[in-house]
Amino acid sequence: MEYYIKILGGGKEVGRSAIEVSTSTDSIILDYGVNFDPNDNPNLPLQEVPSKVRGFIVSHSHLDHVGALPLYQISGNYPVYGTRLTRLITELMLKDFLKLSGPKVPFEWTEVRKVMDNFRSVNYHEEFELSTFKIELGDAGHIPGSAMIKVKTEKGNIVYTGDTNVINTHLVKSAEVDFLRDANTLVIESTYGRFNHPERKVVEDEFFEAIKEVVEGGGTVLVPAFSLSRSQEILSVLSSRNFDYPVYYDGMVKEITELMIQNPEFINDYESLKKAYNYFKYVNGWNDRNKATKGEGVIVSSAGMLKGGPAVYYFKKISDNPKNAVFLVSYQAENTPGRRLLETGKFDEYSPMLKARFQIFDFSSHAGKNQLKEMIKSAKNLERVILVHGSPDSSSVLAEELKREIGVEVIIAENGQEIKL
């Protein structure tokens, strides 16, 4: 039997992931996400003939990995597999996505409901079958509940890492690198194929000292952060160090934090997250928002790139005071206010120069270049590496180094490309 991998999304567009594994008659799809253009219009992945698709396995609950799942539910009922926490958070993410982008996507609440009705939770290392394929999940170390996906075939094992990281953080443990050991074909992200990250403890120390310096000087620190995972990580950093000034959190952070607390087996430093939830202040309405900006303290709020959400309100309230600070903790995509601040010091072309203190801290949940290479080298029977989820320059640098160092076939994926195994 012949097996193929088709790239339905990924490669040239950072953040867009959908991988099809197929035979002549059956196919399964690993992730089915949505990316956004500079005008915030959703870009949907390519589609396979619905009659051939047997189901979906998702690595984690970020929209660039689950946002397009409702598409296939328009014409049928397709099973979706992932960890229990991924299932719970996916429901929140899809509902929020539809609320914000509903007129721009070709599905409605009915299809989102069908995704969740057809979503089957599986544990790490619990082998299950989907059509002719045998599947196993391993911990990806990216966000709570994230998984690497192993597809066992007659042509060898295919491992798709999804987004992955190999450091211990407050939220998650390192990815299970041994899970890659028996991979023959490895489909791996290349988001940071050009760069390495600083040591996480150093980043946390610098971040905490900078927070203290601003707050002890009577200022307010705004930390724009993604509602899923980055906000919880920042809150855990503060609670683990017994930060005794007011900390507020705003946006969808509360609901996601509650789901994580209800599923402690997915959380590395559970006590710090629970402490943050119990002792820090959830912003409940405009009175709380106004109060949060009045005195010294920290505000953790979505959105992480300042594209919208309560963080924009807070930014406008605190940005003209040099005693205050804006600390970015996430990747800032092109054409976002966060990127403009980094490049010009202004929120937009009509805004005054930022007067508050401004810094960015690398809290990335993606493996850096050397970490990706070590993961790849852990596979002892590797025949080919397929690089996805990376810009062309990141993928190219990583590909060249891999060819020199391990000598296997390296493919920089392109949308629509089909690879015969």
UniProtKB/TrEMBL annotation:
InterPro entries: Beta_Casp (IPR022712), MBL (IPR050698), Metallo-B-lactamas (IPR001279), RibonucZ/Hydroxyglut_hydro (IPR036866), RMMBL (IPR011108). One of its GO terms (molecular function) is RNA endonuclease activity. Pfam families: Beta-Casp, Lactamase_B_6, RMMBL. The keyword Hydrolase applies. Residues 231-341 form the Beta-Casp domain. Keywords: Hydrolase. It comes from the Archaea. Residues 15-218 form the Metallo-beta-lactamase domain. This is MBL fold metallo-hydrolase.
